[in-house]
Automatic annotation (TrEMBL):
Domain of life according to the entry: Bacteria
Molecular function GO labels: phosphatase activity
Domain called PPM-type phosphatase: residue spans: 334-553
Descriptive protein name: GAF domain-containing protein
Compositional bias (Basic and acidic residues): 681-690
Region annotation (Disordered) ranges: 671-690
Family annotation (InterPro entries): Bact_Sigma-Reg, GAF, GAF-like_dom_sf, HATPase_C_sf, HATPase_dom, PAS, PAS-like_dom_sf, PAS_4
Domain GAF, first and last residues per copy: 139-316
This protein's record includes keyword Thylakoid: no
UniProt KW keywords: Hydrolase
Length: 690
């Protein structure tokens, strides 16, 4: 701190030091540009002018003066630096070739200027570190190595084709065009039709003359070489035979301003994947045998890259289809919950999931998880974990206990997978589980390697629940803590996977920006917030997919809840029946539901008196189904058994299981237990709603 202050005082109080510093920056061999908040260049030194080949960058956006291969990513990164105030150092970026220069590798750094000062924005420094091996001369091996070093950096068809086109210009040709077979562009397997019957789609072009046509409207001239699987070169002067037979090709060369053409099929295991066209206009002479041999090797290498990209694309598509089929079609809603979900795709997709599970007592379980990896196996593993979590939720476990059991299930899956496929890698997964209780307006959260749950309060302030992070799923067998907090009605609970942002600390800021775009009305609509998050993040490239679950929570209507403290004695069942009959009539439930409800409360109340520990309490809840609960402070749960003909008892819970659509036992966090049953209305049983 003292050193920083000393330097600031030196520059402020010593004009000579400031002058020397400015002169040093101006004369630096490192290109230095000053950018404003809109990323427009306001100042630059002489080295920057030289790097930009004499172009005046003043007033232009940085991505307009530098032909970057991925301008969207660099623009997003620059804005992140401006918003976060954290410098980005020594990023390697690639450029497209220009008429004057070939593709370059640049080392780019961004530094934020202090806020509140004139000219605030960013300082951008650029160093050209293009390898000297780019100048490969006439050595075929060096030329091939240089081209291969430029191609195949991603598993994307379009990017691979663009990289190849840029790598061949201007060293091998003045203009390069790459077209792919239609099945490649659509991610389909190769067709069974002849190669000349499948259309070719131009994907990438480099060095095209302005206004010049470089792709034929008629592809018939290339059918023979595609069928023969061999490249062919022609020159307007030395080899006019092919051109005389194909006037359309001759017109194309003239339109492209070229005197020589080299066409080569891109093949993989006997299948045509595409076509490579190289034109020479300014470069004298035809294509030599050495050029043809080099292009054949380049096409072979490119075919492998494209084949890998196709396999990845097909597996990616299958994994997404599996993932989509294993996720909830439509999250359930109730009287106390409004839910919206958002999926943001990434390069690694298939492992994210969410779930919304109705629980007893009008509660709702919310889960968001992520399996590390991508592809079909990751998607199926995700489906297994989601199914296991949903099954555990039906046991009415506390969130921490549920995740602990899910972690043991994950470890078992990992062992089975390793044994079957002889892999030693550990299955890595994380999950955040929350349980919303609309009667107490409390949420209980546990985390097993998952992000924190955020709460957006009605006044739009953002808090976290404050849940300690437990070990990831499949990790050490340690207790996973749970935290229960009160949440005001009309708040939003936000659960998400780690891929939402690169830095978890950025998530609240992202939510604030999204909330600013949501209309200020009575509460924040969950769907509207998801839409704004999508608008903010869709253009931002991400490696890992993200799942977001937004839940607007509400208090349960009090007029649809009834409670009664049960007396300790034989009169408990009578009091429970009377309470049930009274409230079910007020709620307008039909005679069948009322009759079944009275039988159930009689059995529950009798069990509480005979086997429970007082005090006991009856609670009736009317949501999408009628819920009947009897709680006591004892810890012994009733056990359903099938009574024999000579048994005098043991039939009560069997009768309950026949009358109720769902029933079970849950242990309360504060001690005691609750026996519950749910009875659906007749229209739901008959296949109506729900």
């Amino acid at each position: 701190m003292e050193g920083d202050a000393r330097r600031e005082r030196t520059l402020e109080t010593c004009p000579e030091a400031m002058r020397v510093a400015c002169e040093a920056l101006a004369a630096s061999p490192l290109a230095i540009l000053v950018l404003d908040d809109d990323l427009r260049v306001t100042e630059c030194n002489e080295a920057a002018h030289h790097l930009l080949a004499g172009t005046d960058p003043a007033g232009k956006v940085i991505t307009d003066v530098l032909p970057l291969r991925d301008p969207e990513t660099e623009t997003s990164g620059a804005r992140d630096v401006r918003h976060s105030g954290v410098a980005s150092l020594n990023r390697l970026v690639r450029t497209h070739p220009t008429p004057r220069r070939g593709p370059r590798t640049l080392c780019l750094s961004l530094f934020p200027l202090p806020p509140g000062q004139e000219g605030s924005g960013l300082i951008c420094t650029i160093a050209d570190i293009t390898p000297e091996t780019a100048d490969t001369g006439t050595d075929p091996l060096r030329r091939l190595a240089a081209i291969q070093g430029e191609v195949g950096e991603t598993l994307d068809h379009d990017t691979t084709c663009a990289e190849l086109a840029d790598a061949l210009v201007p060293g091998a040709a003045d203009t390069v065009v790459i077209a792919l077979a239609e099945h490649m562009t659509q991610g389909d397997p190769p067709p069974l039709t002849p190669h000349d019957a499948e259309p070719l789609c131009p994907i990438a072009c480099s060095g095209a003359p302005e206004g010049g046509q470089v792709w034929p409207l008629d592809q018939r001239p290339f059918a023979p070489l595609l069928a023969a699987h061999t490249p062919r070169a022609t020159d307007t002067e030395a080899d006019p035979g092919w051109l005389d037979a194909e006037p359309a090709l001759k017109r194309l060369l003239r339109a492209a301003g070229a005197h020589a053409l080299l066409a080569a099929p891109i093949m993989r295991e006997g299948t045509v994947l595409g076509l490579l066209l190289l034109y020479r206009g300014q470069t004298p002479g035809p294509f030599s045998d050495e050029d043809i041999a080099l292009v054949e090797k380049v096409c072979g290498y490119t075919a492998r890259c494209l084949d890998h990209a196709s396999r990845f694309h097909r597996e990616h598509t299958i994994a997404l289809a599996i993932q989509h089929s294993l996720l909830p079609r439509q999250p359930p809603t109730g009287a106390a919950l409004d839910i919206a979900d958002l999926r943001l795709p990434g390069e690694e997709s298939g492992g994210g999931w969410f779930d919304v599970m109705p629980l007893s007592g009008a509660r709702t379980g919310l889960a968001v998880g992520q399996v590390t990896g991508f592809g079909v196996r990751t998607a199926t593993t995700m489906g297994e974990l989601r199914t296991a979590g949903r099954s555990l939720a039906t046991l009415d476990l506390q969130p921490g206990e549920l995740l602990a059991r899910l972690s043991r299930t994950t470890a078992t899956l990992a062992r089975d997978r390793s044994a079957a496929q002889r892999e030693s890698g550990r299955l890595r997964a994380g999950c955040t589980y929350a349980e919303w209780d609309p009667l107490s307006c409390e949420v209980t959260v546990a985390r097993a390697g998952g992000p924190e749950v955020l709460v957006v309060r009605p006044d739009r302030t953002i808090d976290t629940v404050g849940t300690p992070e437990g070990p990831s799923l499949g990790g050490p067998a340690e207790p996973i803590p749970s935290v229960t907090v009160a949440v005001p009605p009309e708040s939003l609970l936000i659960l998400h996977t780690p891929g939402l942002t690169d830095d978890p600390a950025e998530v609240p800021g992202l939510l604030r920006r999204a909330l600013e775009r949501v209309p200020d009305s009575d509460g924040v609509d969950a769907r509207a917030l998801c839409d704004e998050l999508s608008a903010l993040l869709t253009s931002h490239p991400r490696t890992i997919e993200a799942q977001v679950l937004v839940c607007r929570v509400m208090a349960f209507p009090r007029e649809r809840v009834a409670t009664l403290a049960l007396p300790d004695g034989p009169q408990a069942a009578e009091a429970a029946r009377a309470c049930c009959e009274q409230h079910l009539r007020v709620w307008g439930l039909d005679e069948e539901v009322r009759f079944n409800g009275q039988l159930i409360v009689s059995e529950f109340a009798g069990n509480a008196v005979r086997h429970g520990t007082p005090p006991a309490r009856l609670r009736l809840i009317l949501d999408q189904a009628l819920t009947i609960e009897v709680s006591d402070t004892g810890g012994n749960a009733p056990l359903l058994r099938h009574a024999q003909e000579g048994d005098e008892g043991g039939r009560g819970l069997f009768i309950v299981s026949q009358l109720a659509d769902r029933w079970g036992t849950r242990y309360e966090s504060g001690g005691g237990k609750t026996i519950w049953a749910e009875v659906d209305p007749p229209e739901k049983r008959d296949g109506g709603e729900g």
